[in-house]
TrEMBL record:
GO terms for molecular function: NAD binding; UDP-glucose 6-dehydrogenase activity. It comes from the Bacteria. One of its GO terms (biological process) is polysaccharide biosynthetic process. NAD(+) binds at D30, K35, T86, T121, E155, K263, R329. InterPro entries: 6-PGluconate_DH-like_C_sf, NAD(P)-bd_dom_sf, UDP-Glc/GDP-Man, UDP-Glc/GDP-Man_DH_C, UDP-Glc/GDP-Man_DH_C_sf, UDP-Glc/GDP-Man_DH_dimer, UDP-Glc/GDP-Man_DH_N, UDPglc_DH_bac. Pathway: Nucleotide-sugar biosynthesis; UDP-alpha-D-glucuronate biosynthesis; UDP-alpha-D-glucuronate from UDP-alpha-D-glucose: step 1/1. Pfam families: UDPG_MGDP_dh, UDPG_MGDP_dh_C, UDPG_MGDP_dh_N. It is an enzyme of class 1 (oxidoreductase). Coiled coil: none annotated. This is UDP-glucose 6-dehydrogenase. It comes from Collibacillus ludicampi. Substrate binds at F152, L153, R154, E155, K204, F249, L250, R251, A252, G253, G257, K322.
Amino acid sequence: MKIAVIGSGYVGTTTAAVLTSLHHHVTAADIDITKVKKLKQGILPFVEPGLDKFLISMLETGRLNFTADIYQAVKDNQVLLIAVGTPSRADGTADLRFLQSVADTIACSIHEYKVIVIKSTVPVGTNRWFSDYLGNKIGNPHMFDVISNPEFLREGNALQDMLHPDRTVIGGKSQKAIQIVKEIYESMQSNLLVTDWETAELIKYASNSFLATKISFINEIARIAEHAGADVVEIARGMGMDSRIGSEFLRAGIGFGGSCFPKDLKALIATAKELGADSKILEAVEYINRTQPNFYTEKLNRLLQKIAKRPWKIAILGLTFKPDTDDQRESPAIQVVNHLLEECEEIRIIDPTIQTRNQTPWPHEQKVTICRTTTESLSGADAVILCTDWEQFSNIDWKEAASHMRHPVLLDGRNMFDPDDIRSAGMRYLALGRGEFE
Ligand SMILES: NC(=O)c1ccc[n+]([C@@H]2O[C@H](COP(=O)([O-])OP(=O)(O)OC[C@H]3O[C@@H](n4cnc5c(N)ncnc54)[C@H](O)[C@@H]3O)[C@@H](O)[C@H]2O)c1
Ligand SMILES: O=c1ccn([C@@H]2O[C@H](COP(=O)(O)OP(=O)(O)O[C@H]3O[C@H](CO)[C@@H](O)[C@H](O)[C@H]3O)[C@@H](O)[C@H]2O)c(=O)[nH]1
């Protein structure tokens, strides 16, 4: 099939490469010319394990092409798959202006029947709105059909998630368009769920919100465990042994970040409000997550006030919202740094993907130092905070680390380490919900 993928970000690029591997002819289109130039050369503009090599091999098939000419991409392809961003507005609602701009482009270039597949995460009602908006613009609602096809990949595992999805959700009204989309994914071994637009849209938000709920739930249990002198890591292990609960998404820590959970949770709360429905659980999930990074850093503050002279020097391990990505969007590590900057003389950050200091603008930029090695970041520090559980941090020699620090204190924001190992290396170990209340 001939498919145009509109938007070449994390989702669009992965989708374009995977659809090529399914023997389709794919044109990936993006308005960002710099991005397109890189992708044409097989250079990924973001970090995503395995996707770089896969992209090159797909370009070599000759069936994958990148372009900044969205009009031509729309003209040349029967299926238009949209994967543009849907960021949060200040009030928490989803900003659909990129989607609307794609609709405007399609309206100017459509001459024959198209199947428009919305892969971007969009609030309930958006597929219906898109269909009406485009139909009115071109004055002919029969020139196209709209299909909701939400994406469930995780950053850091995008390629494998898309090659082997747990499920493929197809929402729509037109049987003809549903059949075409089914054929696109035909050779994939995946559970297929065909439904209407609204249900498909809500499956996406409900899935993300449920996973976010598991995380905030275990973070709340961690706060209780801390008062009770219990260990949340063991609690999660015990809970996870029950197959009805499952062991995933029960890691307590400084909270969830990224371009999806925080924004989708806020958007679902906003949708509920618009519809006049309750969202008490979702609001609690959002509240716990919003307060989680400061809950951790306050714990460190209390200890440092007792043992170290202000202003402090703090080392930060990891700035991305999770390992195996360079994405810092809504990273709780950034909230941790911002919360501490006022009290600190210097914050020394190390992250395997940091290229420049300016990826995130800091309020007191002169206080932030980007380091190349862990030792450099720890040198003279009053404390170190593990914010992102990158694999490479699991190999730190804590005995040596302690010798470089002014005060050997570790706040383990991801409960990554064994408290006994760290303490026996001469470090003071703080975590959340692991039996010690400072
Ligand atoms: N990142 C994820 O892990 C993930 C997973 C599942 C779903 N999603 C959803 O998928 C959507 C895309 O997410 P992303 O992370 O890939 O976003 P992204 O910001 O990485 O990429 C979006 C791309 O769309 C391009 N774009 C914007 N307007 C355009 C237009 N009019 N025409 C062509 N290109 C245009 C941008 O230049 C950008 O390259 C969002 O709705 C997101 O919620 C993301
Ligand atoms: O037990 C856990 C698991 C995750 N996290 C945090 O949760 C966030 C999100 O992690 P993850 O879900 O692995 O990454 P995303 O790439 O944001 O993927 C989510 O968001 C995507 C965008 O909608 C969906 O497609 C995916 O299915 C969904 O998992 C990160 O900050 C993690 O550190 C925890 O704190 N504890």
